Prior knowledge:
Layout: H1 2-16, E1 20-29, E2 40-47, E3 50-57, E4 60-70
Antiparallel strand pairs: 1-4, 2-3, 3-4
Amino acid sequence: GVVVLSVVLASLGARLGSFSVKGFRSVKFVRPLRPDEPFELEAHEARPGWLRFRCRSSAGPLVEGSPEIER
């Protein structure tokens, strides 16, 4: 879970620019990511200072969450 979360945050940083995570409102790990399994990341700023993200693979949902960020 921690490795997937690190990859997600790095990918969000590349998309949205530099930010730091102040905390998580929620994180739900639906199922484990298998080695070399590709996945898609959807993300948006739900409101100022809060992101929402969801990761899916062809097998279904992987993880979703809502971190509080500071730019």
